[in-house]
Amino acid sequence: MAFIDGIKAKAKANLKTIVLPESEDERTIRAAAKVLEEGTAKIVLIGNPDVVKADAEKYGVSVEGAAIVDPETSEKLDEYVNILYELRKNKGMTPEKAKAALLGDRTTFGVVMVKNGEADGLVSGACHSTANTLRPALQILRTAPGAKLVSAFFVMDVPNCEFGCNGTFVFADCGLNQDPDSEQLAAIAADSAKSYEALVGKGAKVAFLSHSSKGSAKHALVDKVANAVAIAHEQYPDLVADGELQLDAAIVPSVAASKAPGSPVAGQANVLVFPNLDAGNIGYKLVQRLAKAEAYGPMLQGIAKPVNDLSRGCYWEDIVGVIAITAVQAQLAD
Prior bond to 57 cis, omega within 30? Predict the structure, then answer.
């Protein structure tokens, strides 16, 4: 069974409500229709009902069964204004500014729905930047208890691949933290391992990636990764992790035997922690485009409730998968 098929089966077992604020995007409409058809989540689309329905008809799909909420006419608007005002008044928020934010930004409106318990999660980013999704999530939902930082990961499902867990990996951070320091890399590794185990259902084996394997090169960039491994072993003693490792040493057993003999991770890694955002973003896109992998994300971890981003280059099928993953994350948060 493909990774996403297992996720969809879990999502169907306990339906959650997912908000999609980008109803103006064709991919979002097509994804909503498919999710409703497959029965993996309840859907809320933010937008004008007449426009959304007309667009769905134009695209030849049905969004019957979705709740379509127009902020301009919502009976909840005044309640949401008060919620946003109370949350942000110490930051200069006024009721007037709160109303303008809710009417001017559909993602903000959707995040307040999640905050108020009227939805379980939100997926956005098909036609907006990561900042547009992350900012209201952090301002309104805030970080999860105990979270050291918010980071982003992709679930990569590589076809016909013997590495990882039958080709399934978590790549992090591929969407948010540009140049994490050693302590941040360690925290990203710990959170990504938890995400992998929760979603894939297998034990995580974390490789801290570098252009060096076990001291084969000397550089400050290598030191950063090596220090991250030491911090991870100290602060997260149950984490199965090793590094610094080159990519081939991390996932290919024969290479691991040469470059990192005796490693508990080398040749078996299924969670790959990249040293910076350049490497992570380039890495996931190479695997997605050249290996024809399914790339689900960037999924956000460390936020109090499930809010997930999308690549602006995503396909509608990717959004279907991210919605299902978000629904499962919401189940796990119960």
Answer: no
